[in-house]
Q: What sequence folds into this?
């Protein structure tokens, strides 16, 4: 299996990307295809003694900056590592694409270079978030600030298939993020989406208030990208806030430092549980080929896990399964 | 000063309400006016040996249920403890009103019985949330699911005045909750609100991503009620999630239990910091008289603090100050 990787995406590129690819090739038996400036890739590998043996390199001289208008990926940055990787994926010269570069550009590229699956209205960003139940899948985590009910219904269906096929969650509970549990709560968007999800081929558990997300009230949390992005970032911020407060508490004196030693293994377990790097990246569900967005601050391990995830995405034939479920959704809702 | 209190609002009414009023009368030298079924109030006070001496009782035989359509407050539930209290406030027979009853009904009552301040488009729920900086004020926390930019600009102005007058925050940093820091981020609502807040008589610090809220990036966080409600409830849920995980960690064995003892005072401090009960209730800013929503699960201490807050609201003449700032907003934005 060939996983195409954007060697120049993310805060620690290309070093951590190359390390992650090298680890993934060894552990998972995949072949990595590196996109980016060939000289720089070879130099970085050599200087850091990273084996890139068996990896193909697709030369792409440019890198699209995170702050750049995402649509420039199609023209000004058509020679960037991300654009070249996506084109290669579309041409069938690889099975999946992983990038830690600009989210906006990757959404544009997944939609317009790789193209959407048949009938899919929008590509959505599906992010796994740790919670009391282990984790839940948030979709859309920020690809589409403005959404229509039909898009949200498709997000629910695609997220459900993804969790089942890739994470082994049986009959995932799909919830709609809303400001109350009752069917009559929310704006027009939530009211209409509720009706569609009731008819959809998923285990719809109704509206879920944001309070229930960390407490594990659903497995797939459906939202427009604005709300989803607020949920994702607030969760990150709360995690940071709590861990800083805890650290201060433990470091405040001799007694508390002793206390910290006694609970260290528990703290480490919790830290691991909250670590996004374990879960790989966020797939762009709805694209016609597997595209995975790795976290911008990914290190080698996070890249390795994102590549493992891409491999599983292909192996489990998630896209065919999604297509089947989306057809059922269409029939059942006449949309 | 007379504080009118809904004796039948909240999960622990009337017992905890009466206790809270009794404590508040002693500590703050206010007079409480109790609204609700007179017999039940007297019986509860007697059975629990709570002194209600010096408290006026306004008989109201009914209670509006939390799950009831909020607008029924105006007709079917016009004889409820909440409706009677709000009418009494409007008639000038008291200085402020405190209720832990239905939020929706209280918003309807504050808008249509007490009425809005001149020029105010919507009454908003302003909630104090603990964060790394101490706390921030979220407005609107859920009174208006759908908002116009002019409403959000007014929320920013009112929230800023409230924090300055009541919490002594000098020059509060007002931020707009958005999905990116750049001026061009967000939906139409955020784009237009950004322009209005730039001209408003507040210390506008621009867009704030949800990640920055617990980390203390602003003092007043402005949002529509849908987004605000998601922020409020996710914050609650994350707090619950973390505290449960921490407890499990500390209780998992002998060693960790010893560890817990060593950090106990730190844990207690943190718990206190995160405790909403310390901050009283959420004022409905924009109403022409002070109306405070206490948390549904309020105990005596929470009611006492909400009454203290109502007293400070009156003493600091927050409403006159808001009116002045709102006039300035109108002039500066031509809205």
A:
């Amino acid at each position: 299996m060939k996983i195409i990787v954007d060697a120049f995406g993310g805060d620690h590129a290309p070093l951590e990307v190359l390390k992650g690819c090298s680890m993934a090739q060894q552990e998972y038996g995949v072949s990595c295809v590196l996109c980016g400036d060939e000289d720089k890739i070879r130099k970085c590998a050599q200087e850091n003694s990273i084996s890139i043996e068996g990896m193909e390199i697709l030369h792409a001289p440019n890198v699209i900056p995170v702050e750049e208008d995402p649509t420039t990926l199609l023209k000004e940055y058509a020679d960037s590592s991300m654009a070249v990787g996506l084109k290669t994926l579309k041409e069938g010269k690889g099975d999946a694409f992983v990038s830690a570069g600009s989210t906006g550009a990757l959404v544009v590229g997944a939609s317009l270079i790789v193209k959407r699956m048949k009938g899919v209205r929008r590509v959505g960003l599906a992010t796994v978030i740790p919670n009391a139940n282990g984790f839940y899948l948030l979709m859309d985590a920020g690809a589409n600030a403005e959404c229509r009910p039909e898009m949200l219904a498709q997000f629910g269906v695609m997220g459900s298939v993804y969790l089942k096929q890739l994470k082994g969650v049986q009959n995932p509970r799909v919830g709609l993020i809303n400001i109350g549990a009752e069917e009559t709560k929310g704006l027009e968007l939530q009211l209409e989406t509720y009706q569609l999800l009731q008819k959809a081929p998923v285990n719809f558990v109704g509206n879920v208030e944001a309070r229930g997300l960390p407490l594990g009230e659903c497995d797939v949390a459906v939202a427009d990208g604005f709300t989803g992005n607020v949920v994702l970032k607030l969760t990150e911020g709360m995690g940071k806030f709590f861990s800083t407060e805890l650290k201060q508490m433990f470091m405040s004196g001799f007694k508390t430092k002793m206390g910290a030693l006694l609970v260290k293994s528990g703290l480490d377990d919790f830290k691991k549980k909250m670590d996004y790097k374990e879960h790989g990246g966020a797939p762009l569900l709805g694209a016609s080929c597997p595209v995975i967005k790795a976290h911008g601050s990914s290190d080698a391990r996070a890249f390795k896990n994102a590549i493992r995830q891409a491999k599983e995405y292909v192996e489990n034939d998630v896209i065919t399964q999604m297509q089947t479920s989306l057809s059922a959704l269409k029939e059942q809702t006449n949309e």
